[in-house]
Amino acid sequence: MHRRFTVPGAVAAASLLLAIPASAASFSPGAPGIGDPYYPYYGNGGYDVSHYDLRLTYQPATDELSGTATISARTTQDLSSFDLDFLLDVDEVRVNGVTARFTTSGEHELVVTPRQPLAEDTPVTVVVRYHGVPSTKSAYGFTTWHRTPDGAVAADEPESAWWWFPSNDHPGDKATFDVSVAVPDGTQAISNGTLVSTSSQLGWTRYNWRQNKPQATYLTTLALGRFDITTGTSEGGVPVINAYSKDLGDNDGAARASVERTGELVDWLSGYFGPYPFDSAGGYVPNTTTGYALETQTRVYYSPAQFANGSNTSVVVHELAHQWYGDSVSVKGWKDIWINEGFARYAQWLWSEHEGEGTTQQLADYVYASHPADDPFWTVKPGDPGADHQFDAAVYDRGALAIQALRNEIGDTAFFRLLKGWPQQHAYGNASVADFVTYAEQVSGKPLAALFDTWLFQPVKPAAPAARAASFAASPAGVEQPRSWKKIEATNDVHGR
Known about the structure:
Layout: H1 8-19, H2 22-25, E1 28-29, E2 47-59, E3 64-75, E4 79-85, E5 89-95, E6 98-99, E7 101-105, E8 109-113, E9 123-132, E10 145-148, E11 151-154, E12 175-184, E13 188-190, E14 194-201, E15 204-215, E16 222-225, E17 227-233, E18 239-245, H3 252-259, H4 262-273, E19 281-285, E20 293-294, E21 300-302, H5 313-321, E22 330-331, H6 338-354, H7 360-370, H8 393-410, H9 412-425, E23 430-431, H10 433-444, H11 449-457, H12 464-469, H13 485-489
Parallel strand pairs: 1-4, 2-12, 18-19, 19-21, 22-23
Antiparallel strand pairs: 2-3, 3-9, 4-8, 5-6, 5-9, 7-8, 10-11, 11-16, 12-15, 13-16, 14-15, 17-18, 20-21
């Protein structure tokens, strides 16, 4: 029970507030978070970004980064102030050409107060000049800026932007990007999209990258170092740009043998998911000590560790599948992560079948049989796993089981129509698990709420009758391990920090 006390000062303040015209009183600070319950302070309220223009200079010897970010946005409320997610040292902020006050708050909030309040539904241009050494910054006890022997990499999930550009850091606010980076001659800068131009002057080379399709901030990447860059075009006409650190050592051959198949795999996945949604594809392998890969849009990040045991096309398939499921169609909230990871894992199952190393049904039977009813695997709900379990193996494997169960329920004709239709239905936008259930029912003409509840939301192993109805094995007896399983299992921690 909360008691409300009224004091004379409060009465006076209330009277003064009533005297303020409604038009002025309506201005209020934008929320310090976009409203995602998994990450309450990620993203921000009060505005929607349409474009980021980042003009940067980087010195690999000292890890010093300086830059100017120009952010084009539109207000979604009457704003007296607003937040950006950012960690580096800010020198100046301008809003619509006029200098603005700024301060920091919490772990990663830059609070901007414009000279004049901003009315709802009006365009706004924010310019932030900044500098700093990203590797010296941390938030919540971690960093997503990874130093390499010859530079650095920004790539992580669900956040990485704070260490190198100010943003509205949540998938719910996607934008286009221009990323221009000057580095000393001999060093290269790699980012998303297409390389528009390069220029050299006085010992520095500037690389200008453009992403002309909406992109989530965590999918925006920056790699700085010495790379061997390969270019080509897939048989289906998709330009491919790949890059490999020049000091990958023993992992170099396996990395190239895997990532150089990007064009082939993009074309193959297009047969299931529809036309490739972006203007370029590719990946890069920097010399980092991280162990994960990430579907950074059009330019996938791969750790050398992914290729420590030889070539690994399965992880390439996984990350490229995300270009449709996760990048073009992004989550509305982080609880919707199953749409990303379940379908990327299922793409690996399809590749296994294509390679003759185990059908999707055999993989589903094996996963189901491998986890007894008391295995904590079944307590994770892929449809809403919670922030602490967002990247658990169950989101991937039980998530793929749900997709196989859906396929068995609605039949191949409707299923493969759905696989292609979903990325087109929500191209370059955001969608939730609930949106997917609705869409699957529309495509199939069947009620599917119970099926999705069983496989995505119940924290128990589906009973044997339910499993049999989806053609899954009821016990581990006689369930042979598919030949592809070890390769697929090796990517279970593909997004682990």
